[in-house]
Write a structure and sequence with these properties.
The complex is a heterotetramer, with two copies of chain A (about 375 residues) and two copies of chain B (about 400 residues).
Chain A: H1 7-13, H2 15-22, H3 25-34, H4 39-47, H5 66-78, H6 85-100, H7 103-115, E1 120-123, E2 139-142, E3 148-158, E4 165-171, E5 185-191, E6 197-202, E7 212-222, E8 227-228, H8 234-270, E9 272-273, E10 276-277, H9 282-310, H10 316-341, H11 356-364, H12 369-380
Parallel strand pairs in A: 1-4
Antiparallel strand pairs in A: 2-3, 3-7, 4-5, 5-8, 6-7, 9-10
Chain B: H1 7-13, H2 15-22, H3 25-34, H4 39-47, H5 66-78, H6 85-100, H7 103-115, E1 120-123, E2 138-141, E3 149-159, E4 166-172, E5 186-192, E6 198-202, E7 213-223, E8 228-229, H8 235-271, E9 273-274, E10 277-278, H9 283-311, H10 317-342, H11 357-365, H12 370-381
Parallel strand pairs in B: 1-4
Antiparallel strand pairs in B: 2-3, 3-7, 4-5, 5-8, 6-7, 9-10
Helix pairs in contact in B: 1-5, 2-5, 5-8, 5-9, 6-7, 6-8, 8-9, 8-10, 9-10, 10-11, 10-12
The chains are: A alpha+beta (about 375), B alpha+beta (about 400).
Chain lengths: ~375, ~400, ~375, ~400
């Protein structure tokens, strides 16, 4: 075993600190309050080579792995600036295109995606299917001209309107007609401005720059060249991208937890009530120390999952454990921090409560922790299916 | 022992069910989003006689007690429409005037307040004191007129300070260095919020409730004997009496909102089908709801016991603190368990489940944080040594 | 509402304190370590009129209700001496006989039971049925002489060998032949020394005076006059006794929690480490204060359930809530207390850890908290069945 | 980063799987019930070369590190057969002698200890000191012979004190009032447990483990320079070095026993059918098991990181404390979740699931309670002020 980060990895992990020299956290918070994508910051991250971190070098990326992506996001989140676009764009869209795209697709999307000229979002969730992805009812049907038509509805699609392209998880065979339930999935790359696409923002109670959308596809034309990988074999691609998603979200949670606790430690050392700094009261101190422990443990598991992934080994159990533990750790860390701030924690000025909604969301989305536990129980422990 | 509530109490408890037909959760949420006082709803409650619940009949009230006030608030919160201004106004300020005001003060303020014509806010917290009760808002003799005083200083996190017509202010009237016990030398004054020398600044809060919070600045505000509630320098005892009612009624808000969240979750979990069963049939979602239900009902019992003791004039500090602690925890857990049932929908404004969270979470911290509540229970009830 | 105890109730609640004048807690602990029934103490309690607390006055009892039984047990447990025989004997056996017994049965069992000359146990759990009582397979079949024969197996029967009589929950119609699943239950009163009864002690890791047994019934003869209530209608009687069981166990939990905390408060005020009594450290103090709150809340709900029961109102939801909350509160209270005692808590001399196993058992037995939650969810909240 | 363990490490980690074929959980439980040292099992581990894992090859050991020792203990505990004497003996005492003993001391004690011919116990805790490190067991110059010392005082909760041949004792050799820092003036002495003036009393403990705990009394025990480990008055530094390994190996016991409990529960929950489904299909039982599994695996990772740092000679205090805290909590939760699956059977000696609880619970309290562990993390790692 070796727990050392390489020099390059260390630098990637610390990138968040550098970014803060050009963009204050207030910039991000301001974007979040106005629900406006932090375009300038994102472009800077892209130009510095971090959006294409997992894209092969020949396609304009850095040719690195999931470990580096996780370290990048963790480092940014340590500073209180989690970048959701790194999840749905850099990790879940650019990654699969780099791995499964045709030469033409790679040339069209990757260099521009890496420098931040175009952005991607990822459309999977549907209102009726919920966590049961097998029930996907967005249908891809062959059209006369050798292409396809896309029909259906997606929901909770992050940054859909701001993105230029969208990876859409569709079915070319309806779920009740597929021989095996994982058959008949196809992933297509769709221009978000295509005719037949309608988007409605969903108002959510979470202060984040990236907006959520409900999307309607009405006979949207999709060319055969827009299919990622093979028709009907989309589930394999999808499946590959779910573990990275869990890891990068886990990294985000660890970082946000650390950010909150860093703020709390500072405040708790400073604020004196009853003649002692409040950090000296165990009722405030120990919840912080427990949360700190949870965060550091979750961070280790996240890295182990990324390491397994980069080594081509099975990482499902580890990725799920990391997501479960990190989301709980972040919520506990933020809550323990909030309690230190008293009423001030609830003001926009201090902004501690404002960290909570997003962390809490990650216990529920993109996959709720109950489904994560189901996975661990069945796959990791050999318990029977419970749902 | 008798756990039954009277018919009148039941009617009060169920008032929320009729009020919500006119002013529903949507109305409340809209007001919350605008940070606008729910004037129409408040007026309706006043017209129906519920604002003056604890005020003597002679002054326009119903002459009832803390139990009824708590049941009222719990019932409103059960429907998702808590009237938060009942805390600082009807429960704390009006009872305080009712119990300690002069005949003139009572006649001047109470009938109008009962009718909803004017409202009260209550200014205790100071930025630099925090949970510590050192107090720097000062009341000093006027130099020009020996019969009068001037009020100076600053209060923060004062609910409804801009819209309320009157404000009760806890002030230090004898300097800390000149008193024997640090609780000596406080005076409570009742002032018009439009008086000269008062400035009010809203605090930008991450919680959407209709009643905003403010920082209030006092700059040589003129105070006469007619503004003083109770005796000069004996204000702490009066203040102290209003703290248990505050905890009790906050407890009622939490248990009520918890029930509201659970009710919404039960409805949704019975309807929403994933993997061929209604999601309410999955124990991972169902059991947290059942635990939360248990927590809520237990906390509600303790809240009622505290109110019952208060109305009998018995000590109710332990019970009030236990109720407040348990209710806020139960409320948080109930909302969180409900939220998990709703998936991503729970975080949307349309479903509005997450939107219940900030307010219950606030009550783990305010007006007194749970750590101080536990300190109280540990020391006063259990006999453990002071830990802070 | 009125939270006052009557003078008589107060006296019953404080009986535990009086009992300690004659029997030290060490007497009970010694019985527990030797797994020996505290006969002398039990006889004293009976002679003082407390075993027959729920038995009508004409049958030798006090003619009081469940509230008084709960107060009695809570008061005894406050002193660290929970009496299990009050559960299976006084509450679950004498209660139903008083209510459903024939005049002959009452005369035969109640006066002697009230003064402690005979003891009762209650046999319901079966190894294969587990929590699914409907699957009871102990069968009562008609025999030639107008009586019945009892065959089957019961497990985890408290105090079976020490008891003189046993209420046995049997089926006269097999579960898969009953029209409704609650049909065909019959409760019989059986002399524990009857031919055909075999008992094996079950060694459990819980220091209690009352032993647990596995019982085998092999053609045990039961007279028609030994049937309690009507043949085939036993479920109604059974059902009536389950809520009282939950209440009295809840009372026991509240008392044990208070006992542990009382010990901890004393120790924590006394023991000085780093120049302060350890009770002044919030890391120890706040868990105690939380547990105290939980215990007092659970106690209130227990009393509400008893009050409803005595008033002939439905009390299932309240009884279940009380059991759930009280068992969790007791475990938390004991654990928080244990932590105050450091290593000493694990010694027999201090005996704090020794309180844990029984409290923990009550999260699992007689009905596990998961089934309790199922009840609350379905009956109290209207959620669908989950098992 | 590299999360792989080497082939040799894997073999060590899996040693438990082969040892358990000869000495299974039943053997261990029987020894525990008798409070008898598991001599045969210990001897087998020694014969197979595992007791001297951390001792240099020159002295009969394997020359490996903390990582291997932790993996060994974790692997044994995975099978439900933790060798607790590896904590105070192989991990703490033998490494300490190996690192700080004189050449003579090493040659005298280590080869025999590696072969299992003699065992060590480790005496730190004192009744009146508790978690506080004030120390009253004293080492003073002998009046009769200036070259020698006498040991007086009392130690408590000393594991295996009666059966072990040797004991390391932490003593105060310069009075507290004469030292600059309170950690100055300690000396560690190595004594024969049969030496004159030593008396040993068993402590009646509510936990069934093979290794008993004792109170040890020292009455003018003769000590010479040959008994002193390291330098006189510099014992605290040596002691300090052995505390992180203790936390690491205890962490390994907890994660291993947690896995053992979960393994048993999974087996049972797949078999036992109630209401027509195996009980493992009910989320109310299944999800706690899955959470516990997650907690265990996370804690195990941190434990390995701590061992890895230790072997590299890097600071590992935070990691060791985090590992100990998280592992004991995870172990407790795992055993409790497993227990709930077994129903009443879990409390029987036959199934023996509850019997796993006392030992994991003990590690929330001993050798250092979780509160002190959290204090360490808060102060040293997070920079919060001292709270005690």
């Amino acid at each position: 075993m070796d727990f050392t980060l390489s020099h390059e990895q260390q630098m990637i992990y610390e990138y968040g600190e550098n970014l803060l020299k050009d963009f204050s956290r207030d910039y991000w918070v301001d974007c979040a309050e106005r629900r406006e994508f932090p375009t300038d910051m994102y472009k800077k991250v892209a130009r510095d080579g971090f959006v294409g971190i997992m894209v092969p070098e020949e396609d304009g990326g850095a040719g690195l792995g999931m470990m580096e992506m996780v370290l990048l996001q963790e480092g940014l989140s340590n500073m209180g600036i989690p970048l959701q676009s790194l999840v749905v764009g850099a990790t879940m869209s650019l990654g699969p295109i780099g791995k499964h795209g045709t030469v033409e697709q790679k040339q069209k999307y990757l260099p521009a995606g890496c420098v931040g000229d175009i952005r991607f979002c990822f459309a999977i969730t549907e209102p009726d299917a919920g966590t049961n992805t097998m029930r996907t009812s967005t249908m891809l049907t062959a059209s006369s001209g050798g292409g396809y038509k896309l029909n259906g509805r997606k929901t909770f699609i992050t940054d859909a309107e701001g993105s230029d392209y969208m990876l859409v998880v569709a079915r070319n065979i309806a779920h009740n007609e597929a021989p095996r339930k994982t058959d008949g999935f196809t992933i297509v790359i769709v221009n978000t401005r295509s005719p037949g696409i309608e988007m409605h923002p969903i108002e959510v109670s979470i202060p984040l720059p990236e907006k959520q959308y409900q999307i309607f596809f009405d006979d949207v034309e999709v060319a055969a060249t827009d299919v990622l990988g093979e028709v009907g074999r989309g589930f394999d691609i999808l499946f590959e991208s779910l573990n990275p998603e869990r890891m990068i979200l886990a990294a985000m949670c660890c970082g946000m937890g650390r950010y909150a606790m860093g703020r709390a430690v500072e405040y708790a050392n400073d604020r004196v009530v009853f003649d002692r700094p409040i950090g000296a009261y165990q009722a405030l101190q120990h919840p912080l120390a427990k949360a700190k422990t949870e965060v550091e443990l979750a961070s280790l598991m996240t890295r182990k999952a990324a390491w397994l992934f980069d080594n081509g080994q099975r990482c499902g159990e580890e990725a799920n454990m990391a997501k479960l533990a990190a989301s709980c750790a972040a919520v506990n860390a933020i809550d323990a921090s909030l309690q230190c701030f008293g009423g001030n924690g609830f003001t926009r000025e201090y902004g501690i409560f404002d960290l909570y909604p997003f962390a809490r969301l990650l216990k529920t989305a993109p996959l709720n922790n109950e489904m994560v536990l189901n996975y661990i129980a069945e796959r990791g422990m050999g318990l029977p299916r419970s749902y | 022992m008798d756990f039954a509530i009277s018919d009148e109490q039941r009617m009060i408890y169920e008032y929320g069910k009729s009020l919500v037909k006119k002013f529903d959760r949507k109305y409340w949420v809209e007001k919350a989003r605008q940070h606008a006082f729910p004037t129409e709803m408040y007026q309706q409650a006043a017209d129906d006689g519920f604002v003056g619940l604890m005020v003597a009949e002679k002054y326009g009230g119903a002459g009832l007690g803390m139990m009824e006030m708590a049941l009222l608030q719990e019932g409103l919160s059960n429907e998702g429409i808590p009237l938060l201004s009942l805390i600082v106004g009807a429960t704390m300020s009006m009872s305080l005037i009712s119990d300690h005001g002069t005949e003139e003060q009572k006649q001047q303020y109470l009938p109008g307040a009962c009718k909803g014509e004017n409202r009260f806010c209550f200014a205790v917290t100071e930025a630099d004191a925090g949970t510590n009760t050192v107090n720097i808002t000062s009341l000093t003799r006027s130099v020009k007129n020996k019969q009068r005083y001037v009020l100076n200083g600053r209060k923060t996190f004062i609910t409804d300070a801009e819209c309320a017509e009157y404000m009760l202010v806890v002030t230090r009237s004898t300097a800390l260095k000149d008193v024997q016990r640090k609780t000596d030398g406080f005076t409570i004054v009742l002032i018009d919020t439009r008086a000269k020398g008062i400035e009010v600044h809203p605090i930008n809060i991450s919680i959407e409730v209709p009643e905003d919070k403010y920082t209030v600045f006092f700059d040589d505000v003129d105070i006469g004997p007619e503004n003083i509630i109770g005796e000069l320098n004996k204000g702490f005892e009066i203040l102290f009496e209003s703290l248990n009612p505050e905890r009790i009624i906050i407890s009622a808000v939490c248990t009520g909102l918890g029930r509201y969240a659970l009710g919404r979750a039960v409805e949704y979990a019975n309807e929403r089908v994933v993997f061929d069963r209604p999601i309410g049939a999955y124990q991972a979602l169902q059991h947290p709801l059942a635990k939360a239900k248990t927590d809520i009902e237990l906390a509600s019992l303790m809240m009622r016991k505290a109110a019952w003791l208060f109305d009998r004039g018995e000590a109710c500090g332990t019970e009030s603190n236990m109720a407040k602690y348990a209710s806020s925890e139960a409320g948080i857990y109930a909302v969180d368990s409900a939220l998990q049932c709703f998936g991503g929908n729970g975080f949307t404004k349309e479903y509005g489940i997450f939107d219940l969270y900030p307010i219950v979470r606030l009550f783990r911290t305010a007006p007194l944080n749970s750590e101080m509540v536990l300190n109280y229970i540990a020391e006063r009830e259990m006999g453990l040594p002071r830990s802070y």
